[in-house]
Design a protein that fits this description.
CATH superfamily: P-loop containing nucleotide triphosphate hydrolases
Strand content: 5-15%
CATH architecture: 3-Layer(aba) Sandwich
Number of strands: 5
CATH class: Alpha Beta
Radius of gyration: 22 Å
Largest sheet: 5 strands, parallel
Structural class: mainly alpha
Shape: globular
Order of helices and strands: EHEHHHEHEHHHHHEHH
Number of helices: 12
Helix content: 55-70%
Length: 273
């Protein structure tokens, strides 16, 4: 008989979510989710996006656990459901991007009253964008090395990304399998959500359409457009450089701790040589 593992989520304080989830944006990353994040914030929502998770090591570990418990290691860990998502999503009233997108079934079941938005784009351009951004960084030699020498910032990020794409497409970063996974993800959401509760957004994005769906007045400023490929690469390069500095500081701390031992050892060697 298998014994369930202790879960990190069970150590979190349980309290009622004061801001129940109102909007589930379940399109995959690189489908305009950052621009939609800006639009939702402009409309008064408090959304959770990967950009929030990536800077919080503990939160990344919780999401890795959610993925492993729900999709990978079901026999030894209890899958995440409404009680767990209420903790993970505490303080937010909307979700966007990965890792939330791969939990479409679970989140729709947990929050049946939430409106659902699916951001899409042509599959060929999605693959190209992914290969120029997220999938590119996952293959950078510097990132692969930093995964082991600096586990807090980059290491935990790569572990989360690999878990996400293991579930999404078996960690296939191009080709027919990646294309089929993207199309199947979008089709699954269309099947899960009644048409009246689903808004599908694709370029060119329209703010009036979004506001009408959410029952919000339309601002005059127009739909925001952010997070181009160049902007994304710039941010992840900055994160890599920050991680390198953290790794060097960890090494320096280790050497300083080792220095007295080396001095004493050297002294004994000089005395008895």
């Amino acid at each position: 008989m298998s014994t369930r593992k202790a879960r990190l989520i069970d150590l979190e304080k349980r309290e009622e979510n004061s801001e129940p989830i109102q909007v589930l944006c379940l399109g995959m990353c690189r489908t305009g989710t950052s621009s939609l994040l800006a639009a939702l914030k402009m409309l008064g929502y408090t959304p959770l996006h990967m950009s929030h998770i990536v800077e919080d090591t503990h939160l990344k570990r919780l999401w890795v656990e959610a993925i492993e418990s729900t999709f990978i290691d079901k026999s030894s860990q209890k899958p995440y459901g409404r009680p767990e998502f209420d903790i993970l999503l505490r303080g937010f009233d909307a979700t966007l991007d990965i890792p939330c997108a791969i939990f479409a079934d679970q989140l729709i079941n947990a929050y049946p009253e939430a409106k659902v938005i699916l951001t899409t784009r042509p599959v060929e351009s999605w693959i190209k964008s992914m290969q120029g951004t997220i999938w590119q960084l996952m293959r950078w030699p510097s990132y692969r090395i930093l995964r082991y020498v600096e586990p807090e910032l980059v290491g935990s990020f790569l572990k989360l990304l690999e878990a996400i794409f293991h579930v999404h497409n078996g960690n296939k970063y191009g080709g027919a399998e990646a294309e089929e996974a993207f199309l199947a993800h979008n089709q699954r959401i269309r099947e899960l959500v009644p048409a009246k509760n689903l808004l599908e957004l694709s370029p060119p994005f329209d703010l009036t359409t979004l506001c009408d769906f959410l029952g919000k007045p339309t601002p005059s400023c127009g739909y925001p457009h952010v997070n181009s490929t160049d902007e994304y690469i710039s941010r992840i390069s900055e994160r890599r450089n920050k991680s390198i500095i953290m790794a060097m500081m960890r090494l320096l701390k280790f050497l300083l701790q080792l220095l007295p031992v080396l001095i004493v050892s050297g002294g004994f060697w000089m005395m008895f040589k």
